[in-house]
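dumping this here before i forget
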Amino acid sequence: MSKNLTRKGLALGAVVALGSTLFAGTPASAATAISLDTAFGTSGTTQNGVLGEYFTLASSLTGGTSGDKLKFKVEGATAANLVATSRSTVSLTATGAAGSYTAASVAAVDTYAASTIPVVDNNAKVAAVIPVAYVAGQYTQVAFGLGAAVTDTTTLKITPFIDNGVTDNLITAGELTGTPVSITFHKPSTITATPTLSSITTGSAVTAVVALNNGINVEQLRLQANGAPVDASKIGVKFLYNGVAQAETAVRWNTTDKAFQATAENAVTGKIYGATGVVDGTDSVSAGSGTSSSATNITATSALSVSGAQYRATDSAAPGTTTQVVRAGAGTITAEFDVTTVAATKLKSGQKVSFTVVEDGVDSLDAGASVTAGGKTLTNSSTLTRQSITVDVTTDKDGNAALPISYTGLKNNNTLRVFGSYIASGGALTTVPASSTVASGGFLLTGEDSLAVKLVNEDKSGNAAAVSRVAKGGTLSLPFVLVDQFGMTPVGTYRATVTNAGNASITSPIALVDGKMSVSVKDNSTADNNAGYAVTAQIQKLGTNGVTYTDVSGVTESHTVSVGAVTTGSTITLGALGSATPAAASATLKPGNFDILQNKTIQVGTTTIASGSVVTGPTGAAVAGAKVTFSAKGVLFISNNVAGLDSLTVTANENGVLPAIGIMTNTVGKTTITATSGSGSATATITVAAVATGGYSWTITAPTSILPGQTLKVTGVLKDAYGSLVNTLDADSISVVYTGPGYVTTTIAKGTDADGAVSFSVLLGAADSGTATVKFTYGGADLIAADTVVDDVVATASIIIGAAPVTAPAATAAVSGSTGKFYVSATNAAAKKVVVKVAGKFFSSFTGTAAKKTVALKAPKGKHKVTVFVGGKLVTTKTITVK
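structure:
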């Protein structure tokens, strides 16, 4: 297509426009109106096409006569960069949404001819297009395009006019004009072609219907036999047969099926079909059919994983021996795996993978159970066959494919399997986990009843040796939380019998409410006891008879109560810092109490404050059971089985001593960690160096506008996926391109510094104006910014050189009730229509002004819900009372 346009452009460039003959007495046209609309597709004055393809408009005259000098003013490109071809046609029966084209025969009258394109004003990018001579009663069709020299998205504004006054290719006073139409020709690299395979039937042609973004009018992209000047060719599809890509097939508007589509071979039984969209020779988005996908760009993936509060991989702490379990009843889990490697020049994003959820056996789900994913629902609708659902998922920016799966009515020992699949680059159907059959593929998930498995005292979660301090003869409360094997409140009714190994009074048993209880301890000691005594709670569950409670084996917890004077800390002495310069965590920081979160694994710090930190009081004596809070923004603190983000409070043992505190952060630079207890505090400082690779996102700092004569300063900061600054040690890993007026004062660095930044300044002249753009590129996995590989990390910003555009204030409206009427006012609504609705129905309207305008509207007594729209937008809603 681009060659066709180029050749036509060269041919047209060789045409010498006839000099305009200026003379008095040129007959006026009898035409009273000019229409201009798209020849094909939805009617409208704003249209979108593909750079390198023609876009065809159709014009007609009301009352026109043959020989009328119908011409077109074109703004947005010079004459040299315009191409146009035209014809007068009787085959077009209407334009716009109702447009149709009859191509039973293409007569001479329907043959396109090159149009003359005289220069009007090259500096302003204005030209004229002179089509074939107008013929009364026929449509003048003009196909507009841009030559090969134009490589960026470009908009043309096209205005029809009759040059019957002064014949000069200009619109002059008194000459008839029509409503202009704007066409934006989108650069192919900004276009995404997404194919969808139609239902596949053996013996029938396999068809892919393709959707384009950017609002492109796909009806324009058609065959010459169906009204186009040449066959459209920029958009295509590569069909896949059992994962093997075929030669590209052009996608064009099918005038019979009314669809933008391409067809392949007649479907063969057992063959798996797929399709990949193609834009200007570059692969775009893939689509799949049936249980397999067509993401043939995939060469490797991670293992399938299942996650969610209702899922766990069973270990020795949980009942049962099943490998993977989900909580009986209702819940949601997520199946996912990552596309880790793709074919060269392909993106990890936009790849199609499939997930299948299937009964493990022909009757492995309860009759009342249902499993839903991707809008599809699986039930045990037949006890003779295994039921399944398959859902296609498109990978995200990071190559992740995730499918939420919800379920209800799942019973104990119900079983199902979940697995992923894709067609690998070699064409083979690949399942994850690896398996050749559905029967054994994927994760075997077994429903498991909720059972109480752990009683948690949260002080001990942070320090297994933690104690609670009580004055001799005093009282205190000890909180406990009961969880099941999924870290949730167990199903059933529970209580705890509580005993102690000292001289304390405790009311027992204690009922648990929502899995929680608080044990009130009244100390009866006759002497201080720093080592303390244990308070032990044993969980019991109410039996099915509703009367008898029995002990739940192994579900018990003890906590030590230290007896003595209760003091607060005044001094903290921290343990040694393992490393003052730890590496960045390079991971998502995950806080939580992992005694409660039964199905999660706690992270390990990149450095530690060694065990032995001690809290002492005003007299220098250790503070038993002291509460110490560690804090620092962006730091994950880890103690025993608890992790806290930004802060964590840990309880000391009877000697005021703390366990080791793990530390990890993604914050680059110096971070001060503060530990406080009472009036005491202590600090430790860590310094984290920027990471060298893994750039994920840019943050650009630049003004949106700047006045001429000033110095423009621009900074880009590169961070990884976890927020750590990236100091690119490779000198070729960064590219910064500035386009616009002014003088760049220094050579722009090709790498970021220790702060993850690259900066530059531009000295602007006093007369400079326009729009400047800056583009930051990080070279991705190969660390080469200049190769434009698809995994590059790119960000852009635009800066207006000159006064900042003035934004009109938003329109406002108010409503108030009165006697026999109500008032409506609108402000900042100049020349806009203000519509008033009552109870959702039209009531009145008026034209607004820039200043506040108030109208009184008669209305019956009572309360009325009034809504006010200004310029078609809802501005306010209020219920008022009319007396």
